[in-house]
UniProtKB/TrEMBL annotation, chain A:
Origin species: Umbelopsis ramanniana AG
Keyword Amino-acid biosynthesis attached: no
SUPFAM superfamilies per record: PLP-dependent transferases
Domain Aminotransferase class V: 42-399
Protein name from the UniProt record: Aminotransferase class V domain-containing protein
Keyword Hydrolase assigned: no
PANTHER family xref list: HERCYNYLCYSTEINE SULFOXIDE LYASE, L-CYSTEINE DESULFHYDRASE
InterPro entries linked: Aminotrans_V_dom, PyrdxlP-dep_Trfase, PyrdxlP-dep_Trfase_major, PyrdxlP-dep_Trfase_small
Keywords: Pyridoxal phosphate
Pfam families: Aminotran_5
TrEMBL record, chain B:
Protein name: Aminotransferase class V domain-containing protein
Pfam families: Aminotran_5
Organism of derivation: Umbelopsis ramanniana AG
Domain Aminotransferase class V, chain residue ranges per copy: 37-364
Lineage top rank: taxon: Eukaryota
Keywords: Pyridoxal phosphate
């Protein structure tokens, strides 16, 4: 560990690896999947866990709640909303399920989704279809796509339903939209889409799993109907900490995926009581400490210069790193003309040809990447084209992308060889 | 802080074991039943798993973790006599209850039978099912202390009444929710008998065994519930957020996690013989799985104390003796039936308080005075117009803890009675 003036701003790049827990010989290019957290956040976690165990009654019945409220206040400041509009949940899936499963549907109701939503979210909507007879309208954008085209695609679909039904919104109850999709890892113009949906009386359920810590958020301005984001992805908190935002106007509509003693049905329009905070404050016994690592995570990020500086470095690195990898592979970065897709994750086309028998490719990238090259990036197939998604982070620099580029080149060459041999 | 004895010597139950745990020296934990706690060796295991995960999260989540989770399930399956494949790890009992109750294809007019003593959150969940599916709730209201026979008879009568109404086995009751051990009062329920009764009448059994594993012996193979949930973090010494859901193979096609998985598949089509139970429950969104894996360290620690039987023997006896002691000091009695089947590791003692309209603040008072001021908290609760307290016996406790708790409770009760009488004068 180098000695340096503690007041000096830290340098982004490899020197920050010391602040984290990752193995020295591993090149972590996949922050986007599961996140990771620095040592000081781990310490905060353990301090909270020890504090809890010293007198669990005192902790759970009194001392924990002010801490959780403070954490929500901090997050509220960061994303411009009130603490009372936030609830901690374990992960985005939990938040999305809470909303989707709470909403009441009528005969003929529809839900809009993009084919690019996360697998589990797609299955959640399928569950709604199976159990509530909701019709799913699945739009299938092909990336790279311009923001205008994506918004237009959604607008077309809405207008089509309106024409069919003669009703504003066309009986579409809500749309599930990402703030940033997972595969490809691309920014979605969700703020514009929210406005569009609002114009047509359609609720917006925003899966912002990848949002906080990666893009600037202003929920007051964006004004989604429901928004969920993982703190443990890009904000450096411990896994199992996410937040669900529900503006006051919608709070009576939602109940947790795990019903608690505070549950109260608010279907009666004369019922103006609000049990949102009470219902979401407890989902059964769990370890609440991960939520409280928000403080240490934000302190750490401040010590690096704050959100803007982090974004500046990471976004820049994602672009430069992506271009570098594309050059090494002889391919290109997945980007639209206005260059609005890339935040901290960058998608690069892989020099491999998709074919019927390529189902084993993911496993090969895991085996070769994780174990052999100690440098893993997930491959994915999008409309018949193979890409990989690389995550830029404060502890990485261009040499990490370079190394990854060469590892990918080797893996791809091997796979192409197997494909050609298979053909024979 | 380890005792300096020969580590092969069997440990002594009682205060010497406090050194194994993380409880503050000046705190007397009388309420293990609410949130559990875990020994230092389990904390070590937790941290080791967390470090391992963070060392290379890709390897952990995409490969190595699943083997560990499977091994942990196998250990638990051996303990409670079932197959590992019929178990799923979940965060807590409420999650399991929600997964089952919200998955089953209830239709309007179906009925769910439950006791009034089920956990508040479980009751709320059933009300949610009622509100959203048009299910009718039949709530039976036993008065404790009640004999096992009377409780079973009460349930049987309710079933027969429904059957008479519609002339169908089970009536329109599709499922019954029952505890292994209720929370307030903290009493053992003859769930094995009740399950048999329900099976006879074609009624599904959803058993909330939150207070099950580690407190009473379990044999799911014999008992054969339709659905069984138990918290490992309550009485088994694992870290909070680790519980298990057991779903009998015959029912797995119906059950999906409360958090829909990418592997979700609807099996309503009876010709669909595919199985996705295991996969659907294997991932409920990103979380820290380390809590589940503290199963190993927890079971090892319990073995080092002599194993489940020895632990249950010590704690069961302590609960009884401790309860009697508290009752004596308070001048009241233990809540127990004639055959003495209600007390497992938790004992309920009547408090010397007169219930009245404005006693809503009493629970807070027990908390403030007990937990915060006197550092010795046993929850006070009102049950059918009578105030009780529930005390939990544990391996790190002795009778002197119960004695201390009794005096704290006595003081609090005297104060509350004084306030009540002063209030009356006004």
């Amino acid at each position: 560990m180098q000695l340096f003036d503690i007041n000096a701003k830290k340098q982004f790049g490899k020197s920050l690896r010391n602040d984290f827990i990752m193995a020295d010989d591993y090149t972590p290019m996949n922050h986007g999947s599961y996140g990771t957290y620095p040592i000081q956040v781990q310490k905060a976690l353990r301090d909270y866990q020890d504090l809890a165990e010293r007198s669990i009654d005192t902790w759970i019945k009194r001392d924990m709640y002010p801490e959780i409220y403070r954490a929500k206040e901090k997050l509220g400041q960061l994303i411009s909303c009130d603490a009372d509009e936030l609830a901690f949940v374990v992960n985005t899936s939990t938040g999305i399920n809470a909303v989707a499963r709470s909403l009441r549907f009528e005969e003929g109701d529809k839900v809009i989704l993009l084919s690019t939503i996360y697998d589990a979210m797609g299955r959640t909507l399928q569950y709604l279809k199976d159990t509530r007879n909701v019709e799913l309208i699945k739009l299938d954008p092909v990336y790279p796509i311009s923001d205008d085209d994506l918004v237009a695609m959604i607008e077309d679909a809405i207008l089509k339903e309106e024409a069919k039904t003669g009703v504003t919104g066309g009986k579409i109850k809500f749309a599930l939209i990402d703030a940033i999709t997972s595969v490809p890892g691309a920014i979605v113009p969700y703020e514009r889409i929210i406005k569009l949906l609002r114009d047509h009386n359609i609720l917006s359920l925003i899966d912002g799993a990848h949002a906080i810590g990666q893009i600037a958020l202003n929920l007051r301005e964006a004004d989604p109907d429901f928004f969920v984001t993982n703190c443990h992805k890009w904000l450096f908190t411990v896994r199992g900490s996410a937040i669900l935002y529900v503006p006051k106007r919608n709070q009576h509509l939602v109940h947790p995926a795990t019903i608690s003693a505070a549950y109260k049905d608010h279907s009666d329009v004369n019922d103006t009581s609000n049990t949102f905070q009470a219902e979401f404050s407890w989902h059964g016994t769990q370890d609440f400490s991960p939520y409280l690592t928000v403080f240490a995570a934000l302190e750490y990020r401040e010590s690096l210069g704050g959100e803007e500086k982090i974004r500046e470095y990471c976004w820049g690195l994602a672009r430069r790193g992506g271009a570098l990898v594309a050059k090494i592979l002889g391919t290109d970065v997945l980007e639209n003309e206005e260059k609005s897709l890339t935040a901290q994750m960058v998608n690069v086309r892989l020099p491999i040809v998709a074919h019927d028998g390529d189902g084993y490719y993911l496993d090969r990238f895991i085996d070769e990447g994780v174990y052999k090259h100690k440098c893993f990036v997930p491959p994915f197939k999008h409309h018949g084209v193979w890409y990989t998604r690389l995550s830029a982070q404060v502890y990485l620099d261009e040499s990490d992308f370079e190394k990854t580029g060469y590892a990918l080149k080797e893996i791809c060459a091997q796979l192409e060889k197997e494909r050609l041999e298979g053909k024979k | 802080m380890a005792p300096s004895s020969n580590h092969h010597a069997k440990k002594q139950f009682g205060h010497s074991l406090r050194a194994d745990f993380l409880i503050a020296d000046d705190y007397t934990l009388m309420n293990h039943g609410s949130y559990g706690t875990y020994p230092a060796v389990v904390r070590t295991a937790l941290r080791q798993y967390q470090d391992r995960a963070e060392n290379c999260i890709d390897t952990w989540f995409r490969r190595d973790m699943y083997t560990e989770v499977q091994k942990a399930k196998e250990k638990l399956a051996t303990l409670i006599h079932c197959h590992a494949d019929d178990l799923a790890f979940i965060a807590n009992a409420s999650t399991g209850i929600n997964s089952v109750a919200r998955s089953l294809p209830f239709q309007s007019g179906d009925k769910i039978l439950q006791l009034s003593t089920i956990f508040a959150a479980t009751g709320a969940t059933m009300r949610f099912v009622r509100d959203t599916r048009g299910v009718e709730l039949i709530i039976l209201d036993p008065t404790y202390p009640i004999s096992d026979d009377d409780l079973v008879a009460m349930i049987e009568e309710a079933i027969l009444k429904e059957e008479t109404k519609v002339g169908v086995t089970g009536g329109k009751i599709k499922m019954a929710v029952l505890d292994t051990i209720s929370s307030t009062p903290g009493v053992r329920v003859p769930f094995e008998r009740i399950i048999k009764l329900l099976r006879k009448h074609n009624i599904l059994s959803l058993v909330d065994g939150a207070h099950g594993i580690g407190q009473i012996p379990l044999n799911l193979h014999e008992t054969d519930p339709d659905f069984f949930i138990s918290n490992c973090h309550k009485w088994l010494y694992t870290v909070r957020g680790s519980s298990i859901l057991y779903v009998a193979k015959r029912n797995q096609r119906y059950i999906h996690p409360a958090i829909t998985s990418e592997y979700y598949k609807d099996h309503s089509d009876l010709s669909d013989m595919s199985e996705t139970f295991h996969k659907e429950f294997s991932w409920q969104g990103t979380q820290d799985f380390s809590g589940f894996l503290t199963t190993f360290a927890a079971l090892e620690y319990r073995e080092s104390l002599g194993g489940e039987e020895k632990i249950q023997e010590y704690c069961g006896n302590l609960a009884r003796r401790g309860g009697e002691l508290v009752a004596k000091i308070l001048g009241t009695e233990v809540m127990e039936n004639e055959e003495k089947t209600l007390t497992a590791m938790m004992v309920n003692v009547r408090l010397p308080l007169v219930a009245h309209e404005n006693d809503g603040y009493y629970m807070e008072r027990f908390l403030e005075e007990g937990a915060f001021k006197r550092k010795c908290f046993a929850p006070g609760y009102k049950y059918k117009g009578t105030w009780y307290t529930r005390l939990s016996a544990q391996v790190y406790m002795e009778e002197s803890d119960f004695e201390k708790a009794a005096h704290v409770l006595k003081d609090i009760c005297e104060q509350l009675e004084q306030e009540r009488l002063e209030g009356q004068k006004k």
